[in-house]
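Quick review question:
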């Protein structure tokens, strides 16, 4: 057997421990069955993919294929016709006719290639085209049955379990804790304060001490059942969470609590203080902290000038919290070289390749190859689909498997790795590292 086929076979036959998805609960998908006329709220991309309520082929485009269609010129009016109107108003075929010219311009990208693979591997359709879309509507209706999440993950995507970051809640009380491990999102507790999260804690926050109690309540309630913490404040600010004292933060919080609007500097200072407070909680609860770094989902708003500082901004934060394991997501694309340096230098830094295989499959391969020659192989998690829809994970997992196989084969043929090194590394990055870093057993035990 040659090297490539033995590596390929191992990668093909190994289940990923998927470290990042945004999967909504399966029961929500089941509730959409037959809801032909539901029109989602249409107000930019974020509410759209969270508000969409139909199990049909356009749903599969919402994240992230739509970004590339829009980048290639698809207008908001066209977007509204496809995603905002029901099939009674615009037929499935007519929706495809709107998308088709943009699909032709974008079928080369990782986002769209992943979707084409999903059409092939999950729906047995060679291509996305006028003739296949209505069939896929029917196949999706048929697929969406109790238990289909497990079926798609295990049987089609080759994923053993996924870690879910709820986008519209702090934490999902999942029906399937052994399949869908949950992150505890601390965005609303720290960087984009949402006073409404005090309500379930039964606290009316007036002072910073009250707010500590709100945070503490969330950690007590969800911490033991959470697999990690998650924060994506890189979408709204720099990641230089410098220490800010309680004395400085307390009056800022008091003003915020009575409805005053803080200046940007004030918001940032309060965010710094509360972010660091949460990192101390992370250490107490032994929860790895996942941080968004690099590229943005969506179109027409990304401030690269800010993103390019992500890696450097994090150095003092990483150093200030040696007992916290930091998981930096998406390889910080397009600044991925810096993340190899972080993984190599800091013993408490891990890099997650989630989302990166579809943002730019070639860059992700390059990253993995260089990373595996520079930093300990124990520092990398190879796969997270980063999707709200379960179906699309299939295509992304395929691109990831192809990339991993290609990279490890190159490392062998170029003489860097022995074949055994390559096989060991595949198992590590696909699952072993995640099993070492995240406490699956304790977390699952806390659900029962
Ligand atoms: Zn994500």
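Suggested answer, residue by residue:
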């Amino acid at each position: 057997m040659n090297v490539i086929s033995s590596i390929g076979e191992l990668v093909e036959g190994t289940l990923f421990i998927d470290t990042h998805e945004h999967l909504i609960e399966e029961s929500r998908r089941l509730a959409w069955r037959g809801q032909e006329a539901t029109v989602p709220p249409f107000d930019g991309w974020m509410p759209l993919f969270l508000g969409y309520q139909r199990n049909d082929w356009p749903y599969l485009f919402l994240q992230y294929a739509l970004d590339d269609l829009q980048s290639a010129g698809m207008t908001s009016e066209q977007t509204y016709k496809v995603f905002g109107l029901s099939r009674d108003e615009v037929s499935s075929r007519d929706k495809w006719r709107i998308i088709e010219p943009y699909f032709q311009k974008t079928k080369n990208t990782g986002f769209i290639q992943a979707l084409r693979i999903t059409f092939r591997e999950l729906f047995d359709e060679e291509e996305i085209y006028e003739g296949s879309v209505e069939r896929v509507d029917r196949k999706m209706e048929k697929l969406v049955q109790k238990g289909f999440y497990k079926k798609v993950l295990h049987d089609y995507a080759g994923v053993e379990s996924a870690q879910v970051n709820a986008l519209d809640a702090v934490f999902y009380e999942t029906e399937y804790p052994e399949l869908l491990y949950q992150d505890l999102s601390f965005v609303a507790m720290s960087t984009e304060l949402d006073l409404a999260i005090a309500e379930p804690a039964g606290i009316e926050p007036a002072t910073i001490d009250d707010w500590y109690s709100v945070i503490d309540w969330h950690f007590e309630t969800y911490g033991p059942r959470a697999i990690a913490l998650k924060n994506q404040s890189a979408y709204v600010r720099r990641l230089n969470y410098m220490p800010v004292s309680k004395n400085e933060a307390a009056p800022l919080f008091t003003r915020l609590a009575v409805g005053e609007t803080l200046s940007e500097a004030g918001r940032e200072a309060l965010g710094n203080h509360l972010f660091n407070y949460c990192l101390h909680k992370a250490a107490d609860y032994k929860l790895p902290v996942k941080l968004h770094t690099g590229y943005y989902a969506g179109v027409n708003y990304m401030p690269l000038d800010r993103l390019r500082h992500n890696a450097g901004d994090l150095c003092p934060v990483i150093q200030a919290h040696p007992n916290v394991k930091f998981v930096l997501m998406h390889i910080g694309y397009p600044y991925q070289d810096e993340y190899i340096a972080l993984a190599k230098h800091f013993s408490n830094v891990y890099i997650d390749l989630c989302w990166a295989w579809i943002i730019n499959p070639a860059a992700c391969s390059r990253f993995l190859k260089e990373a595996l020659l520079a930093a300990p192989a124990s520092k990398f998690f190879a796969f997270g689909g980063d999707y709200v829809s379960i179906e699309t994970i299939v295509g992304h997992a395929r691109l990831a498997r192809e990339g991993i196989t290609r990279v490890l084969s190159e490392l062998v043929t170029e003489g860097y790795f022995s074949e055994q090194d390559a096989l060991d590394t595949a198992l590590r990055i696909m699952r072993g590292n995640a099993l070492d870093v995240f406490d699956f057993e304790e977390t699952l035990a806390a659900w029962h």
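Why it works: The chain has a mean pLDDT of 95. The pocket of zinc ion is lined by residues 20, 22, 165, 386 (CB under 6 Å).
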